[in-house]
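User: Please go through the entry that follows and flag anything odd:
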Amino acid sequence: MSPKRVDEQAILDAAAEEFAEKGFSGARVDEIAKRAGINKAMLYYRVGDKEELYRRVVLRGQQGFQNAIMEAIESTNTAPDTVASILKGITENAAENRLMPSIILREIAGNAKTLPEEGREGLNRFMNTIRSMVTMGIEEGTFRNIDPTALQFMVTGAIFTLSLTSEMRRELNSDNPGPVTPDQITESIRDILLHGILKNGDEK
């Protein structure tokens, strides 16, 4: 790996920390440079300005989730299996890249006003993937006619929130913190998603 590549990854790692903590608007380039152990001039030379830093951080993070989703789709045959596999892939990726859930949730809270255009395109691809999965489930008779957009935000919101709050939940209630490991989070969401909360599936 070339020195330039190493420098760029260190800069993007530092930028991800800054953006996760302060959001796009609150992040400062000089603080990112400080975290990366370089001066601002070198940062601009290696990567670019604040917008380019954010674009690169978002796209790098999205790529990890997209890879997990595509692997899930390619390795399963039925809609319920695909749901379970996607849940597992996203949860494991969120655990490995803990800064991205914070960045994404900040964007959602801000109505995605600072999300780069390519990031919007990635989000749209994800939504189309979920729509296709829901359509497959309806056609094979395993899913009701549900709203795929609601499903997308329920799944990602639950995964990201549970992934980010495991330490807090342990502190608040050490005896019953809820799901904290990726496997526990995956199984809890999968169970509720596919079986609901009504006993025996009864509808009231």
